[in-house]
Amino acid sequence: MNENTKKHLRDFIRDKISTDLTEGINDFIVTRFPPEPNGYLHIGHAKSICLNFGVAEEFGGRCNLRFDDTNPTKEEQIYIDSIIKDVNWLGYDSESNIHYTSDYFEQLYEWATFLVNKKLAYVDDLTPEEIRNYRGTLTKPGTESPFRNRSAEENADLLERMRAGEFKDGEKSLRAKIDMASPNINLRDPVLYRILSKAHPRTGDTWKIYPMYDFAHGQSDAIEDVTHSLCTLEFEDHRPLYEWFLENLPVLSKPRQYEFSRLNLSHTVLSKRKLIKLVEDNFVLGWDDPRMPTIAGMRRRGVPPTAIKDFIERIGVTKSDGIVEMSYLDNTIREHLNQTSLRRMAVLDPLKVIIDNFPEDLEDKLEAINNPNDESAGTREISFSREIYIERSDFLEDPPNKYFRLAPGKEVRLRYAYLVTCTKVIKDSNGKILEVHCLYDPESRGGNAPDGRKVKGTIHWVSAQYSNKANVNLYKNLFNSEMPDTGEDWLDNINQDSLEVRENCYIEKCLTNSTAGETVQFERLGYFCLDSSSEINNIVFNRTVSLRDTWTKKTSKVN
Ligand code: ATP
Ligand code: MG
Questions:
Q1: What is the pLDDT of residues 72-97, one digit of tens each?
Q2: Average confidence score pLDDT of the chain
Q3: Which of 253, 382, 404, 443 is 20 to 30 Å from the Cα of 185, by its Cα?
Q4: Residue nearest to atom 22 of ligand 1 (CA)
Q5: Is 7 an annotated catalytic residue?
Q6: Of the listed 202, 262, 352, 445, which one is catalytic?
Q7: Which domains does the chain show, CATH number per domain?
């Protein structure tokens, strides 16, 4: 999407911001992207990133990257590093405005004592399980804790002792005193602090108590002067609580929360808990396995960041939940790569072709177009020789009608090279085709005969002598079912064939100079990029996405 269209993105959040600016409710917009550093970012997070950083950019405001690091049992520095890298890769400034909720621990604690002194919070001795049982249900009001009416002095003393580490995990907690009969369960005396005897990656052993998300989030927004706090719909019911804190605490700024629907994508899971399971139980080869819906995985697979941003813009920001088909994402990726990627030739299932009338030892250098959609990409030289490889599926000994590829007695065009006619098939004792012999028309250099005879089929090829070997990873969806995320048996839906490794593929020589992540089109096969593990003696390519169906229909389907 070009800059002009981008400026015209419209949705209810952009409309609201626009109104707030026009009406002078705000004169500067501040948003934030608040990941918990307990896993790698996935495509769902990209939606939130593009929205938060996107609107800040569009309205001349600022977006903070805030690490919501309130649970030291699950958070790690490697996740922080990966998040900074991924946001940056998506094209946003992830480093100028980094914040950590843990930087506000002292202020948050001060506010907790403020609530205690105002009799709006109390220390509870109920266990976490008892608290759950006392909470009631959607149809049944909750029950007040027997510790609810402690004096402010007693609560202040207990809170201080909680902080000092006098109690064990779960022995006490600090709760807001709101309304145990509220129809909104979030307002039934929510827990503000819990005891956790666990060192924090940033604050070390300083704290024995840690604030809950609800107590930390809005206040962190207020500290950072966030104006529009954009989060996903599951927080809609938390909004009254978010506002309750802002009303009852002496905060200087009043952020407002707006909710939008999260991205659900078919044939994958978008929950960190599940993604961690896939990594830890070795269902995939790591967070950046190209089959993962993580930003790191997509980067390794060769997906350009512009395609991800475009996809997010296309699905838009609404309040209605739905599932976006993985094929829609794939299509967006294809569209981008079709415009930008250089064309190359590679053979993934090689069958040797010997051109008997072609001079031995001749390296015939031909010209090939780099990108038919971009003239400025120019041309390159490709080497032709007496022995070449073609795809096994581009030869049939006994072809049906309308088979326009190679077959005995049939003529085919070798892309950018010559017209060749098959003269002989060599097989082993099991009938497996070992090699095919052809004669070429020396007058057809470049691909067309001077007499203008029509040759319908064009196939790709790679010189046997002037090429490199490579392994190519072909990926399919990680899950068989459309919505694997539902139910406890989600792991049963894993696609056992999501990775196919093709060894002994042949690639054009110039591909050895590729850089990881730079995606090219292997003609007639799809889009591929060099894997980050690739080495000169062990070249590995990943398939980013296959070619669109219309192309495979127009020519011939190889895979
Ligand atoms: P997960 O469910 O994967 O564990 P999370 O919501 O716990 O995700 P956070 O690190 O808290 O992960 O998310 C940071 C931000 O990204 C939050 O504002 C959250 O609402 C948003 N986000 C997470 N998943 C999605 C999604 N699928 N679509 C849109 N936004 C998302
Ligand atoms: Mg979360």
A1: 999 999 999 999 999 999 999 999 99
A2: 95
A3: 253
A4: 45
A5: no
A6: 262
A7: 12-102+216-315 (3.40.50.620), 105-211 (3.90.800.10), 344-467 (2.40.240.10), 469-545 (2.40.240.10)
